[in-house]
Protein 1
Amino acid sequence: MAGEEARTLCSERYGAHQNRRYVQLGDGQLLRRSQRGPEVAHPLAGIFTSVFLPQGYPDSVSGDYLSYQIWDTVQAFASSITGTLATQAILKGVGVGDSTATITAASMTWILKDGTGMVGRILFAWLKGSRLDCDAKKWRLFADGLNDLAIFMEIIAPAFPSIFILIVCVSGVFKSIVGVSGGATRAALTMHQARRDNMADVSAKDGSQETLVNLAGLLFSLVLTPLATGNLLLTYLLYTLFTILHLYANYRAVRAVVMDTLNQSRLSLMVNEFLRTGRVPPPSSVNPREPLLPAFQWRLSIRLGTPLHSILDSAYDYQRAIENNRKNYLLGLNRNTGVVCVSLREGAGSVDMIEACFHVEVLNELLRPDPGSLRVGRAAFAELQAKLKSERDERLWDMVAATHLLVDQLYPRLLSEARAAGWLTERNHLGADEWRAQWPLEGKKGQ
């Protein structure tokens, strides 16, 4: 073996699981020696990996890929079972098995159901389409919860024949919303998981996994459907059990995702810890604490990328907005409404947007009803909070001007440590609108 090692000419590898050496024999021929990793030691495991996992797995995907896909598989199976129960109920409601029912009536019910769903899809995409990738986890959880509600409505619809069409139409609208929000958030998660510009491969293999799960659900439903037919108690029991499993698996799936881009929630958690501990937490620390449901606590609301008139009512407002301001944004605060509007300069990039949101978090810290102990900028925050008590202007221009200086001091450190901790700052999910402004360049920050 030692002699063979000495005559090893070259080697190669396939992904992370297979290594190969080319060894020169005494007669000049090459001997090929292959070694597989323990993960794919069995040939069937290798076939499964190549069929259902992206090429180059696990190096070609994010570290949270496997845990997310496991829980996503569980939720898809549960949803497939409850979907079968709903389909059975809908077919019963439109008259399948009823000799008095007509094909025309059943067709009209189905057309109305699909038609209202299409309208709902268009309206929801118009109203919320631009926000879906900012809070992909929240919208993913929302979509699956709404899907379970829609399925429940379809299951109970036959019990209310007088309003059956109304119920299934509302259910159709809900399912269309699920389709838009679920599909959009799946795309956002796929972009996060694809680490070699292999979105198409990751998406295709995710489709293969879902097809396999749906096939398993179909086979299970073949056994389940005859038992549940005509048995309302069993139908409701199965729906309850699989819905609980579906929601739990979805929660675990989105909790498994570790996004390394910043949205408003993750940035708030990151800044909060930075100000209190002096360090920027990594994505793996922040993501498990990201809220997945609406939070009921007082916070400033930020509107990023707004038109100038949302900030400036007069020339005086303009002069105050640029005071101490060498940044690529103008910021205006209304204390009474708790809204902060930010106008971005033409050419402002992701780093500028993150800085604007950091500025809002600084203002939020100053206005917090119960400020906690700070480690970073403690003296400056204490001085500003003392001045705030005598501030009477609802726009708080003096406070905005003073915090520009504080942000200039703290933000470079935050940005440097955030990058070192693993956060991506070249792009973000802060939800900026498309308005961009121009104003005189005096005092603009150097590039």
Note: Confidence is low (pLDDT under 50) at residues 1-6, 443-447.
Protein 2
Amino acid sequence: MAECPASLSGQDVGSFAYLTIKDRIPQILTKAIDTLHRHKSEFFEKHGEEGMEAEKKAISLLSKLRNELQTDKPIVPLVEKFVDTDVWNQYLEYQQSLLNEGDGKPRWFHSPWLFVECYMYRRIHEAIIQSPPINDFDVFKESKEQNFFESQESIIALCTHLQELVRTIDDLDENQLKNEFFKFLQISLWGNKCDLSLSGGESSSQKMSIINSLEDLKPFILVNDFEHLWSLLSSCKRTREKASVRVDIILDNAGFELVTDLVLADFLLSSKLATEVHFYGKTIPWFVSDTTVHDFNWLVRQVKHCNHKWMSRCGADWERYIEMGRWVYHDHVFWTLPHEYSAMSQVAPDLYAELQKAHLILFKGDLNYRKLTGDRKWEFTIPFHQALNGFHPAPLCSIRTLKAEIQVGLQPGQGEQLSATDPHWLTTGKYGVFQFDGPL
């Protein structure tokens, strides 16, 4: 196997990684501190003095973390016992073993960006679990819920489109079905623009209906392997007879993006392109807006109890899919570890074996792409398959809008041309990909 290139890191002054560590992460920490502060009276009502003390403790731990980061201190081991503490601390030792200069300690601006950013969110979680009785508080919950409520009109438009389609879906010919499948994939792709870690936790709701802008957005899809997805699922459907076809979706953001993923999953069942859909979320609050089981269940309930006919119909259908076991939600601690996915078969063989049961895995969003490709300084033209570095539990596709300085599998000259016309093309979420790695 060819040598992998170096990791993206904050050492590259002016890079997106550098600006994230310098500006965006401290901003996210400041918002987390502010959120705790605003819930002070709620903690007092629930837990009395103990709640007030816990809030003070969590704030002081987060302030300390912000200071360590801003002064580029060494990265310290986790102290609070949790299911993943040992694995994290082993990974920290591994990062230390790669260093041969200075005091041999990984630092914020001198370590791989993927590791540092994951570590920061894991430390936020540590500050909360070290502060009982508020140790189950999600500092990002409010902004995730706000994103959902601010995107109501778009959500209604999506649910209406889906419900009207489902009523006549059996009458569609092959070509019409294919067009609808592509439409729902695009909706899920552009739903990925609503990312609260990119905006530093500022509102990023979807105000306009995505459906009406799909045609205008098509030119911004840089890699479009849609045909592969269609031929894979439509041939599964044809040869299936009575067997099941399973699509796994590795989720990204809660709120509006999660709705776009659930609408896609509903379409997959309704069109019989899949017989079951498995979703994977995070075990702890992560990258501001990532989906946890709480966010998943909360959203299905909200949609069901909405006072709009088609939206509540969607929620009722989704609840039924869950009860019937046609939709299955999983979480696994691996998704909130710093490892790239090529390490999954070693670090989490149980999860790897679970993913091997899928006919197709859809990886949503930017963090998944960074972990798929090891967050390295790949040439733009390196094949996606090569950047996966041996990770291939099943045919897989990345559905992602670009928010980090990494993109592989482009045509010769494509990346250079984009850089010339739009210097920030890699990081604004303006461009997207459907990038497929097929059956081996």
Note: The chain is about 50% helix and 10% strand.
Protein 3
Amino acid sequence: MYFHQSQTRSSPVAPMSALEDGDMGTFGPELPAMFDGVKLAAVATVLYVIVRCLNLNSTTAPPEVVQQVTALSRYLFKSCPLLTKEYIPPLLWGKSGHIQTALYGKMGRVNSPTLHGFRKFLTMPDGATATFDLFEALGDHSTGDDVTMVICPGIGNHSEQNYIRTFVDYCQRHGYRCAVLNHLGAPPNVELTSPRMFTYGCTWEYAAMVGHIKQAFPQTLLVVVGFSLGGNIACKFLGESPSNQDRVLCCVTVCQGYSALRAQETFLQWDQCRRLYNFVLADRMKKLILSHRSSLLGLKSSNIGDVELSKLYAATSLMQIDDSIMRKFHGHSSLKEYYEKESCLNYIHKVSVPLFLVNSSDDPLIHQSLLEIPRALAEKMPNVMFVLTQHGGHLGFFEGAMLLPQPLTWMDKAIVEYADALCRWEKNRPACRRSGRRDAGSCLQRTGVTVSEQKRANVTSDLHAVRGEKSVFL
């Protein structure tokens, strides 16, 4: 009986074992090949993601330049090789706008030099204390003229930022004096003396710095430079009054958004991770504002109270911070009014000096629709040159062969190259030269690149039409 049970139990086992052995024999050789295929597919997927994220398949190209053909524009093309040469970012990561932007945000620049200058304090009519840092040229300018770069940094920035230090050092070595505005509330260890901070388009402190430079150096010519938010302030300042353009050779802005209203609305979108950038920038602004909490709450005539600070704590976007805090510094009744009145969009068409507007196509902070504004300006106004690079991110523009970026960026070199060309243009036109004060507007009139009032009105209409066409982003 036991033997019979054993046979009964073993009889079905033997065929199964034989089948399993047969299966292993049949499929065994294919399994390693299958695993190799999975590994190969995984590697291919990773490589594809890397190539897409780093944009490695993108080719390098010269920047796109939009402008009217004038004597000045032809001269600039001959005098500025960077406008016609390929901009070549570091091969392994430089074609990613996100990495360029992150690298700029994290370290600013490579091997930023130590600057030696003087901090100036200016008391504003409302009791605020504006500060700017002055750095003398380290040699004579190539034209022999006295030229000052008046620089407005990006949001919450000051002269101690690495990208500002690198740029200023480069300008000094090319014979430029540099004055760098420290945004109100931005420099460490400088307390507020009035219940307000810098805003998106308040030009009071920048105007005070420029006025001081004009008075202290009566013979100097000015090159206006603005980075990101600083570009908005610089263009708005020049367009607010014709007298603001006296002795101004040119204006250069890099990576500005032109329309505050549209820019902030696009910051709520997830494409290109703008919503994430919005959150990071809002967190930085929140910390900066809270570092001045005692001043904003304690000073008389303050529009900021506990209710506003409670909203600030809960804010996760720049728009929420602007609505609860920033717009109230100047008494704007609504967020829309704040953005419209503080944006350079309604002033930039009144600027008659040469405008050099630089943006990057892969800037994750600036929506493509915003680039229609400078493009329309350059197509309608002969004093405007719009330069759009294929790579560069937001204030990155790093250059390099493979992995390590160079200390100087394409942006640094392009600004100085353009400014040098304008200085030589001015030097070679005796009719434009004046004793003591210089009127850049009359210089441009003699070059045939002025903008008539009628054309300015047409440009204004066109800009508003561009804004209307892109209302889907508002």
Note: Residues 349 and 456 are 6 Å apart (CA to CA).
Protein 4
Amino acid sequence: MQGVTYKCSEKSHLTKSVSIMNRNDTTARIAHVFRGTFVHSTSRAAVEMLQDCVLGVDDQGKIAFVEKDQDVDNLTKLWGFETSDLKQLGQYEFLMPGMVDTHIHASQYSYTGTALDLPLLEWLKTYTFPVEAKYNDLEFANNVYTKVVRRTLKNGTTTACYFATIHTDASLLLGELADKFGQRALVGKVCMDCNSGVPQYKESSSECKEETDRFIKELLKKEYPKVKPVVTPRFAPSCSSSLLSELGEIANSNKLRIQSHISENKGEVELVRTLFPDCKSYTDVYLKYKLLTDRTVMAHGCHLTDEELEIFHETGSAISHCPNSNISICSGMLNVRNVLNHKVKLGLGTDVAGGYSPSMLDAMRRTLDTSKALTIQDPQLKTLSFEEVFRLATLGGSEALSLDDQIGNFVVGKDFDALRVNVCVPDGPIDLFPGEGPKVILEKFLNLGDDRNITEVYVAGRRVVPFTDA
């Protein structure tokens, strides 16, 4: 994969075909026009920097054009906006696509930053399941879910793939809150009919199916434009064979996305081998029940074999790499380079609260750290670059969630999900020095920046941060 290309693109591969179509659409109205530097990923380059460019967003929240700065006069006539409408980005500002968190447990946000002293299966029994059982209390759910949606948006997560809990009404509330604050979200009501460790936190197989059907029906009935259901078996050890089969049927008959966990921890892998002796591997369990599709994202995958990765490639299934969690609860280290070499779709996830940070910037940093740690163990392994990791957090995440036809980069016709980044905010975390160009500024933001540097967040053309609370 190439690293960085500069200058405003030659218009053709990004803008020409759709831009011409939009120009003939006299009903389109321009809602936002930005001038300056835009940074995104394409199929050709991990990072492409569009300098001295103008980007227009129409009133439907879609990118209408990306053109060179010198074309402004022609653009004003063509699109009917005034030069006074231009939002000029400063010398140390740029726009980048919104970040995509492909795996986060909204229901675990209340204890983020704590409870990191146990391995996975003990961690679930001791901390996670007792907390998640509280979500039958909608007041409790509203408090936590409001905070996690606001916190992730403020940190630049424009799209989140959420695990909720087994509680249908609380899961519907999470969807309502994501819509209220303007976040693009996939929301999953968790399904689990096996839980010997905390037996009060589970449903019967019939309840799982009935409540999943109700959740999907009621969430779709709301017609939220950016919030959709995702079928969510927690993971194979917490689901009976019959439940996995039913969930596969529900997902495939309704063409819905699927999310779960796989091969996070060696003890978990051994448990799956014991529970499903007729299956050749953990991957084979999900394959058997038709849960591996081109709409599936599986979290972790630290201990997948090359044979299993081949199945992921063949089915079009994706992996969510959650490096903070993988290290924090000592699960393992995913070899991202090997996953990419197998041409498996891959995005990044925070995995709150196994991961202690809800920030996708942290997910990028931990991804680089893990890659370097693996290179220390095997010097023949090519370490990931910060450019590649930037792509995984944006376009890669959109591909993993099968949303890349809508979001992920600044291609004309896609929704404008974007962050306005200022690396020189007062009292901010970054110091700059003379002669530092756009690539250095981007790298400093990815390694040193935080929510103070993310001054505006847009989802489908709507500015959602700063918040406009009454």
Note: The CA atoms of residues 336 and 371 lie 7 Å apart.
